[in-house]
Every structure is written in structure tokens, then in C-alpha cells.
Predict the 3D structure of the following.
Amino acid sequence: MAAESDIAPLPNPPTGSGLTARRLDAGEVDTALRLCPFEDIDADVIRRELAAEADYCWMGLFTPDGTPAAVHRAMRWNRHLLLKGVFVDDEFRGSGASLDVAFAIRDWAREAGYEGVVAWVEPNKPEARLAARLRLRPVGPLLHRYLVQLPYGSDAERPAEPPPRTSGTLIVPDGGEAGGGEAGGGEAGGGEAAPMVRELLGVPWSSSAGTRLAWVLDRSRLVLSGNPCHSTGDLDRFLAAVEDTAVSAGATAVEVLVEAADIPAALAMAGLGARRLSRSPVVLGRVSFAVAETSGTPVHPATTELRTP
């Protein structure tokens, strides 16, 4: 882990609606919980994410009297900020609050030193209009995201203490041995067959024989930036390679990416009991900031430099 540095907090970004945007602090769990509708984002998840300021950002939009109008949840995914959902109070729906808070979190990410923001986008859903306003551009093919429970997942208990790491990188070897979590990035090495889904974030090349992926803990699942399997027959080896990281982070499931056009793979995933996370295909949308920081420049979301575990 890189050393901490004393840097003044970023200023609260202004909005065009008379509302003020700022990050939620550790004492505002109830504020986030009131606006967030998902059952699997409970007070414990929000408390953990608000405490892990280096890896998560909850951006709130507030009226002059302090009433929360909207929140936007996001998390560090290597050198990008992954946008995971905007939630607007019923009173402010149709007011442009969702766009205001999305712009605020995007601008905050730029000032904090991220190279860009990314989000999963369903092209035929209303969210695509918001993605277009944020200038998110497609990266890679249309995909389906499958939630695969890890072998130990049904017996796992949520850790009582926050995990030591909630984001980082890991190597999935080309051979049969599982890899550890190291810094850097990469593409598949060794084997001639193409990966099912190439690494999507441009994680820097690794000299190790394998694919380096970025990961982040989203609730109880491990989100990865690619699928290096050559076929669904490699899935067991893939899960074995990420299991140590998942256990240490407290994840009980892994998101596995499959191209939407790969019908045999979709049938195989269904046969494995994997759950598809959206009805229609998604694409990873990304906006890279015009003046992107170099890979050696620290990301600074909360007075903590970029971790390279």
C-alpha cells in the first residue's frame, strides 16, 4: 500500500440547479440508505464503503437546507471510477438531479486524478441517455454479466470487520495454478486461443504468464475487468485463480463476462446455474479525461495515494 499524504479535500462542486454536490461522510449512512432502493445494499455495505474512502465514492446532491435530493454511488476500478447507480428522491424526479449529481461525480473523479469514468450501460434503456450526456463511449462488445457463486459462497459469512483491501489487481495464470494479487495489468500470455472477453480497462502489461485483471468488491461480489477463459470449460480454473482474492475481500460470488453473441457460452452458463444480471446486453461505456494522468501519478480520492497491492 502506498503511503498516505496530507492533501486538502477537494471543493464541493457547484451544480446548475441551485443544489450542492458533495461526498457523503461516514456519518451519513442513513442518508444513503433512504435513497438507495436495493435490498443487497444495506447499512453494513454503505458503512463499509463510506469508511473505505480510497476505494468508494458516494456523491450526494443537497438542497440549501441540507435535504438530500440524489446520491450517486461509485467505486475505484484500477485507475477508473466505476459508476454503479444514481438514486433520486421522488420529489426531485424530472428536475435534472440525476444529471447534476452524475456530472458532479465525473468532475470530482477528474480532479481526484482518475483517468476516466466507466459504467455498464444497457443501450436500449433510459440510462443510455444519461451515459450519452456524460459522453461515455462503448469499450468492447455487447456483453452479458453472469453472477457465479463461489464454491464456498453458500457457507460464507459476511466478515465482521472491513476487508483489508476492496480493490486491486490479480493475475489469472494461463496454466492450472492460481495467481496472487499483484500490481500492474495485462493481457493473456502464452496460449494461442483468444480470451472470451479481453481485459477492458487497459490495465498495464504484465511480464507474468497470465492475464492481469482489475477487481473491485461490489457488495458481496467480485467485479473483474475481463474474462481470460478460452471457453466455459476453463471456468473452474478461473474461479480457483480468483478465490484467494475473493475470500480476503469477503466476496461470495464473481461477475463473469460473456459476449452476448456467444450463444453456446450463454447456454453453458445457464447450465452452471449462473444468474444473468440484466435482461438485455450491456456495454462498458467509458470517458477518458482530456488531460489523463500518467500511470505513475497517484489517484487521490481521499488523501490516500493509489494502492498497488
In short: The chain is about 20% helix and 30% strand.
